[in-house]
Amino acid sequence: MLEEEYLNLAKFVLEHGQRKDDRTNTGTLSYFGYQMRFDLTTGFPLLTTKSVPFRLIKSELLWFLHGDTNIKYLLQHNNHIWDEWAFKKWVTSNEYHGPNMDDFGHRAAKDVEFNRIYQTEKARFCDRILNDPEFATKYGDLGLVYGSQWRNWKTSTGKTIDQLKNVIETIKHHPDSRRMIVSAWNPEDVDQMALPPCHTLFQFYVNDGKLSCQLYQRSADIFLGVPFNIASYALLTNLIAKECNLQAGDFVHTLGDAHLYLNHLDQIKEQLTRKPHPAPQLWLNPEKSSIFSYDIDDIKIENYHHDKPIHGTVAV
User: Fold this and answer.
1) 126 part of the active site
2) Thymidylate synthase/dCMP hydroxymethylase domain spans which residues (predicted)?
């Protein structure tokens, strides 16, 4: 089954990962250099040993495809996966005068009363992003993150490059090219990003009527992040394959620092006791062609049978 690739990764890092400190001060079991391969002709690699909210994956990907970097679009689609980074920008600003939010991620996980205060403050923050355009412009924007790099890479001459559009044109007209690459890692812009890109570079490959994609991910949060990354890039590969009149082939996922946060170990152990269900199928609106024309309702998952969710706290 497709999911075995992911479960084998989790098991491997549990057994062979080394204790390592990290930026978030959470601590990890870490292993450097690991690769998974998913055959997209056999189904869509959305995990079934826990429920993974596909609506968040597709709205985030559409956010990237639009070249957007402000969480307002995500909030309009009830997607809160980037809230913490924008919220941190707000509560560390000189304009914030609410309750102390220092180290809110760790404190919320350990202190029930503080978590209540934190959730209240974050809800107020999200409401202001949705309803106060000036506030949203100032505190909802995450800087030059994925959407900006994919669609509006800034050059030294002041121009911009639409990497994604260019790579699609290359797939259509020069499918044997070895230069079909999109990079999100722009060294000059890293300091202007709320979170430097974890999935840093991806390359496409065409053979036998199939489009394959390989992603290099420098930092991989196995329990929370990687399931989203697998599904997101599988979706991207399918969308581009459809536009280019190709079949989706393989998604190859190469990980740099593959890690399990220490506060996710019980959760991943529980997940490894579960038996995968058959992979679901992806439905794309046949009336849409360009990947830049899709809306939320144009992308659906069918026959998705899964076990109950397993919750974990994001490390910020």
Assistant:
1) no
2) 5-316
